[in-house]
Design goal:
heterodimer, A: alpha/beta, TIM Barrel, eight-stranded parallel barrel, 10 helices, globular, B: alpha+beta, Immunoglobulin-like, 3 domains, three-stranded antiparallel β-sheet, 9% strand
Chain lengths: 414, 535
């Protein structure tokens, strides 16, 4: 009998070991706390995303430029500056075409500076004529690309998470990159049409998240979403995603965003794109203070809503401000002769950025001036010289001591 | 005792700032109010100096200097600690706003966190040290709410709930009604709707509970109306109306209702609230039936609804006017407006034509509206591709108009040219007709576009601005470019499709319809129309 018990004990012990070995803790995961707040855990530690969107296109080039393979390695210079500022994450919208080059960038940033990478995928949003989320062939083709991306980089140390899409949800409303199906076209009610598109899109993202989880249990999957638009559909159809990565441009404040998300789709949130430009379109001059003012205020709100803040929503995991360096090609992307010119024209209007809203036609958002680091057209070791703006220093100081800001009443500040 | 004095100082300082904010009232209104207020609160002149000092320091933006002064006062008199804390928080609040407005960034970035810290910790300290019965508690909670409201942060909701709760509790025990009004006014300033309404009701009930005469109460209401505080004016008028219905003769109540409705009904100049006016009109109808409305009042009700763009009710009231006063001086204008509203707003071309026909069949007294009615019949026929009928209407129009009404004549000749040359109806006009009349656009109900003129009753050659706001769906960083297809009778101006607004004037009298269709790259967004009366 004793022998039997001993063998059984050995069996159970080995079985346990095997089980433990087959289910190691993920490198990166989201923890739901007892108070229903959320924390991102990376490498066994709480990880607040202090991120920046990264697309270091040099002056004179456009988005098609393969900076990943740039022999001057811009990420080495940038990574050092980022580390000195306190940035711990870069956000990439979609990887470059050469997986080896991409891996090198992720590896260098992580190994040299401890900076992790959020890898995104556009989900075909910018394809011409438009994304056909209702079309099986289109879905399969995009899915293959997403799975390829995950397979390529999932084992790369430094990967933090995946973001599926960016502001693709706006296409469901029918105004931006519109798409449809025969069935939707037959529906006379416009609201129902939107609901039908949303169901298709969010179900598709859910499928992608599910497949990613099957091949990579080490990294969370985020749904990229413009504002909170359509998240009531995500709540129904995108249960597989681990978090929401929202693109928010609300000026000085995020308003009731964090609490609203709790009500609409109770997942943690990463503000995956926010910020302010540093060109005053009204006074027609650069204004670094204006940008620093908005960014500091935005980061304060991000911190107020991190986990364990008694009176915040506790569902924020951090943010990735837009963006690291200016992109000189953006204002007039179809004219290569303007890519070497730092255009001061404005592409869109946003009243929440009120200092220069009186600009002509209220167009106050200067797409080429969002960098917290300016680019000079002078070269330094083969790269456009980097000149940190005021926001770089202001946010650096904020991160050094976010506790100095009163968070709530009757509570110890963080 | 000292606390009481300070408390009274606060009450007085708020009254003072209130008066400054509201400007000078007519003397009789002020007398009426003073009489009421004197029964509620008293002032302590001994402490007015301190408040005056605050005003002087604020006027010179010497915030830190004022805080130094406050701290020195604290050292001399420790009993006033809570009041000093409140003033420090208030000063930091104004200081931060000043730094932001003036873009004094060095101080903002270097000291901003310290100042915010002062606001939060000092108000919290005062809130903890006081009860809702104390004015200081209310002012601290008001400041705390404003601070969080400005930031739109996670504490805003809770701060508002706490403040409301404290004010209501305070109002039960305190006799200071100005406090309630001050908080309600601040809410109104921040665009809140329900909360000020609730507090104004408490405020008005307190006033109404005194032995104040109806006439005095009406004067106070009118005073607030003149100051533009519509929420409060309406709350007091509601009490006046209720009192009048319950205790006066029916005729007296009808007179008051008519007066209040006229006051709030749409007019180009001055204060108006079309929704409130219609509510009073409904009360009037309930109380006095149709007899309560004379011709002018009936027209005013319909006109008020027209400007509120409630076209369904507008047409009911215009029809009522024509039935009760068939020879009204407004007849032609009303017939024309009914034709436009039925056709383009309510998508009922058949009913619209009935009214245009009534004008077109006139054999004498050819008003500008008769001419415009013929033009409308012409374009409807042209849109239906009945060129013969369209030409018939256009030719009759030219015959009747002669050299007068040049604007309509020019438009008519353009339409005739299109028919003669086999060209389609002008694109913007045709699009407007399609969107207004074809079933496939029936989901568009004018709710996505706001179209407004600066004036609706104008003289010939008088300049008027027309502007639109389209409520486009959110599109994030991706700008949706909209086109504005203007058509109709838009006077001397010819706005292009990228113009959201334009200035124009008219050479001829009559009712002018301004049509608009808003288009995005993916199709029609919405349509709208507006009606101007040129004398």
């Amino acid at each position: 009998m004793k022998k039997f018990i001993f063998i059984l004990a050995i069996f159970i012990f080995l079985g346990g070991l095997t089980g433990m070995a087959s289910k190691p803790k993920a490198d990166v995961y989201i923890k739901r706390l007892k108070n229903d707040h959320y924390q991102l855990i990376a490498g066994g530690k709480v990880f607040v995303v202090k991120g920046v969107c990264y697309n270091p296109v040099p002056v004179g080039k456009n988005h098609e430029y393969d900076w990943w393979s740039d022999p001057a390695k811009p990420w080495i210079v940038d990574g050092k500056l980022m580390q000195e500022m306190g940035i711990n994450t870069i956000r990439i919208y979609q990887p470059g075409k050469d997986p080896q080059a991409v891996k090198e960038v992720i590896k260098d940033l992580y190994e040299l500076y401890g900076i992790r990478t959020i890898m995104g995928h556009w989900l075909g949003f910018w394809e011409y004529p438009c994304p056909f989320y209702g079309d099986k062939n289109f879905q399969d083709r995009i899915k293959a690309g997403v799975i390829e991306m995950v397979n390529n980089y999932k084992d790369q140390p430094g990967i933090l998470m995946w973001i599926l899409g960016n502001e693709n949800n706006y296409s469901c409303l029918g105004q931006v990159n519109p798409w449809s199906t025969e069935e939707i076209d037959q529906e006379p009610n416009l609201q129902k049409q939107k609901a039908m598109r949303a169901e298709i899109f969010y179900s598709y993202v859910n499928d992608l998240a599910k497949e990613i989880h099957q091949i990579d249990s080490n990294h969370p999957v985020a749904l990229g979403n413009g504002e909170l638009i359509g998240l009531e559909f995500a709540d129904k159809f995108s249960g597989e995603v681990d978090l929401v990565a929202c693109i928010i441009y609300r000026g000085k404040t995020f308003g009731n965003l964090f609490n609203s998300l709790r009500a609409a789709f109770d997942k943690p949130i990463l503000i995956s794109e926010f910020g302010a430009d540093c060109y005053d379109a009204y006074k027609m001059q650069e204004d670094q203070n204006m940008q620093a003012f908005f960014l500091e205020s935005q980061w304060r709100q991000v911190y107020e809503n991190l986990a364990n803040n008694k009176e915040g929503a506790g569902n924020c995991l951090g943010g990735a401000m837009f963006e690291w360096v200016d992109e000189w090609w953006k204002h007039n992307e179809s004219s290569p002769d303007t890519w070497g010119v730092h255009d001061t024209g404005s592409n869109w209007s946003n009243g929440s950025y009120y200092f220069d809203i009186k600009a002509q036609d209220n167009k106050n958002m200067n797409e080429e001036w969002f960098g917290i680091v300016a680019l000079s057209d002078d070269l330094e070791n083969g790269l456009n010289k980097r000149i940190p703006r005021k926001a770089y220093y202001v946010i650096r100081e904020f991160w050094k001591n976010p506790d100095s800001e009163p968070q709530t009443r009757n509570r110890k500040s963080r | 005792m000292r606390s009481l004095r300070l408390l009274l100082l606060l009450a007085f300082s708020f009254q003072l700032s209130l008066r400054q904010a509201q400007g000078t009232s007519p003397k009789d209104t002020e007398r009426s109010r003073s009489a009421v207020y004197s029964s509620f609160a008293q002032q302590d002149d001994r402490l007015v100096d301190l408040n005056k000092q605050k005003e002087i320091y604020f006027a010179d933006n010497q915030y830190s200097e004022f805080i130094e002064l406050l701290n020195s006062k604290r050292r001399k008199d420790k009993d006033i600690a809570s009041y000093i804390d409140y003033y420090i928080a208030l000063t930091r609040y104004h200081q931060l706003k000043y730094l932001e407005e003036e873009q004094l960034w060095d101080e903002y970035f270097n000291k901003g966190n310290d100042y915010r810290n002062d606001i939060v910790t000092k108000t919290d300290k005062v809130i903890k040290a006081t009860t809702p019965q104390e004015d200081l508690r209310i002012y601290s909670e008001l400041l705390s709410w404003q601070y969080h409201k400005d930031l739109a942060d996670a504490f805003e909701e809770e701060a508002l709930a706490n403040l409301m709760s404290s004010v209501l509790e305070h109002s039960k025990k305190s006799s200071d009604i100005l406090m309630i009004k001050e908080v309600a006014d601040r809410f109104l300033l921040y665009g809140l709707k329900q909360e000020p309404k609730k507090l104004y009701k408490v405020y008005v009930d307190k006033i109404a509970s005194t032995d104040i005469e109806d006439e005095e109460l009406t004067k106070i209401a009118k005073g607030f109306y003149d100051e533009g505080n519509l929420g409060l004016a309406q709350a007091i008028y509601d009490v006046c109306i209720e009192r009048s219905i319950n205790s006066k003769t029916k005729d007296q109540a009808i007179d008051l209702l008519s007066e209040v409705a006229r006051l709030f009904a749409y007019k180009d100049e001055g204060v108006k609230d079309t929704d409130y006016a219609e509510g009073v009109f409904r009360n009037l109808e309930q109380l006095g039936g149709e007899e309560a409305f004379d011709q002018e009042l009936l027209y005013l009700r319909a006109y008020n609804l027209e400007k509120a763009k409630d076209y369904l009710k507008t047409k009911d009231n215009y029809i009522d006017l024509l039935m009760r006063y068939p020879k009204t001086a407004y007849k032609d204008r009303v017939l024309y407006k009914l034709g436009i509203i039925f056709t383009y707003a309510l998508r009922d071309i058949k009913s619209g034509r009935v009214y245009f026909d009534q004008l077109a069949q006139r054999e004498i007294n050819f008003s500008p509206h008769v001419i415009s009615g013929l033009y409308q019949l012409g374009i409807l026929s042209q849109w239906e591709r009945d060129s013969a009928s369209a030409k018939e209407h256009y030719n009759k129009l030219l015959e009747l108009a002669g050299e007068d009404l040049s604007e309509t004549v020019v438009l008519t000749r353009q339409r005739l040219n299109e028919i003669d040359q086999g060209k389609p109806l002008e694109y913007n006009l045709k699009t407007f007709l399609n969107v207004s009349l074809k079933d496939e656009y029936s989901a568009l109900d004018m709710s996505r576009v706001d179209l407004r003129a600066s004036l609706y009753k104008i003289s010939k050659a008088e300049s008027v601005s027309v502007a639109t706001t389209a409520y486009a769906m959110q599109s994030g960083c991706m700008q949706v470019d909209l086109e504005y297809l203007w058509s109709g009778n838009i006077g001397k101006s010819t706005p292009s499709s990228d113009q959201l607004s334009f200035d124009t004037s008219y050479a001829d009298p009559g009712t002018k319809e301004i049509n608009l269709v808003v288009v995005s790259a993916t199709g029609i967004v919405e349509r709208s129309l507006d009606l101007l009366d040129v004398q």
